[in-house]
Amino acid sequence: MAEDLEAVFASANRGDESAVIVLLRAARSGDATAMFLMGRLRDVQREPHAARTDLVEARAWYERAASTGCTQAQFALGNMYEFGEGTPNDDVLARHWYERAAIAGDAEAQMSYARMLQTGRGGGKSDADAATWYRKATHQGHDLAATNLALMHYRKEIADASDGVAFTLFGLAGDKLDGIAHLMLANMWIEGRGTEMDAAHALLHLCIASLLLPEGSDRARVIDQTNLIFDEYPALRAKFESAAADYVRERSAAGSAASPR
Questions:
Q1: How confident is the model at residue 15 (pLDDT cuts 50, 70, 90)?
Q2: 99: in domain
């Protein structure tokens, strides 16, 4: 039934009004999946589509679905309250719904709940609890959770902080093309933390980070750092930039190629 509703949603999302009617009837009959999909249909922030959008209506459908235990709706509702979509921002309610979805096993919700625990938004602050939830999300393959947990180890923000664990976690996130993870791997190779010092490995990760990081201060700093090295050793540029581009291309295509660390 859920697969059938997904197909109906896809049609509704393309502007098929008859499909919207079918989905709406199922939602009004109490089907939690249909309620969630009606929320997605009206949620312009995450679902650009031809159908009519209405964030207030989207939130209402998410709330109905979330109250039945629909994990996806709980996470979506947490997002709406956190970012003030279809409702004023409310960190307490955002954290509440993230927690509900996190307990149910949703990796994105575990990541978001951990972030709120780490910053103290919407309630008490606890680095130890944040690390626990980052760890749960990491075990499900969430790369940003792995990076955030690695940073907690690297910065010694938790009692069991370990450079070795940080290095491993940055490697896991780096394999999924997380730019910050590659920047931190470069730092660890430079500092000899969690691994031996190795300038060549550090330079490779800096080159990879320069390809992956979004525009901003981190990327600008990495580019400046690599340019300084290449200005001094110009023969290295082609080799390392080519290796970095090959790595990113292979990881993008396969997702399971060996890590360069």
A1: confident
A2: no
